[in-house]
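Posting this for the archive.
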Amino acid sequence: MPGVLRRGTRLGKYRLERRLGKGAFSEVFAARDTVEGRRVALKVAFDWVVREFGRDAMEAEARIATSLAHPNVVATRNADWIDGKFVMAADLARTHVYDYPRAWRSGAVALRIVRDVAAGLAHAHERKLMHRDVKPENVLVFADGHAALTDFGVSRFVRQESRSYTEAGTMGYMAPEQAYGKPTLSSDVFSLGLIAYELLTGKLLKWPFAWPPERHDRFRAKVPEPLRPVLQKACAFDPRDRYPSAVELSAALEAAFQRLEPGRRSGPRRRRRHAEPTPTPFVVGMQLFKRRHGRALGLRYRCHRCNGPIAEAMHSCPWCGSGENSFKDITSAPLVCRRCERGVLPEWTSCPWCYAGRFAGNGRPPRPDPQAVRHCARRGCPGELRPFMRYCPVCKRKPGRPWSHPDLIDRCTRCRWPTSRAFWRFCAWCGKRQRDPAPGKA
């Protein structure tokens, strides 16, 4: 039986990679399933929890978690007893919403996350299942940008076994009636409303509060008019003024978003066949560019925002300018930089894509890199550079001269690196806009 769990510990078919977090009842690790060859989030219950509540209660938690099947509820893939420890494996997310900067900068992203979480919570509330600990750390964001709610099982498990309802939940996000031991489905709605207001304004409301609360001007600036009364009602201090469950909240959000989305008609939809949409000239251009240059430039991935072809070395998407692409779960490299989430080699002492480093545990001497096309410009440095590296992976020095590529005949006016003004809207290396889309080509 393993003692202290740390990086490299083996639990059955799972090998722990790093600790993601620690809660009141369990700790969560990023782990690799060595049989299926994929990375998962592994929740390991503390030994005292198993002793206090017993095997039956732990297994009941797993059954609750696996009973929820919804895109906006984190999927539990496996639950088992391994070496005396109760382990649950779930889909591995990119981060939680507290550590997702786009949710704090963009009102549209924040509202999309609230919409996703409301849909997942409604799925649980339809089954009369309260979460009772809706907080930012339990809202996970995945690589494609969608959000999902996690940690349902623990809250139900506590509710079944504890006489004091106040043992579950997190102060600050807890509804007033829940703090007094009488939670309802509406209590989860209140918690989500507080998260929405905090994401949109940077202010966590502290009850009791009256509407309009502090920083309401920011709220009005970021939230379109149809959505304001919906979020205000979700935050109502008195549960009688609140949505009774997330089912009603999610329906109200969807109705408000329908009013904002052009081309959407209210009322029942008629079932009819739709012709395949005609690709826009811009999409045709992306497809043409990939056919011509995809192999030479390594365009093996897709941008999370526009679905355009991109390479791992690109700092920005050349089609939409997004700099938020993650390669953490898809890179072919054995290690991943924690800052930019691109692949790195064990012998590199720093990330050649974002300057991060030095990496702990990298002790291998540099060896010939078959993908390298240059040597570092610093005298005596053994570093080798792959195409479009921004820094030497050994000494962090910038390349001695701008990169060139036979498939990219133009030069960015800012960074002087190669670009394609005929196809690209943005420089893939520095993000500078290259051209504006022609009317009708967006």
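The two ends are 58 Å apart (CA to CA). The first strand starts at residue 10 and ends at 11.
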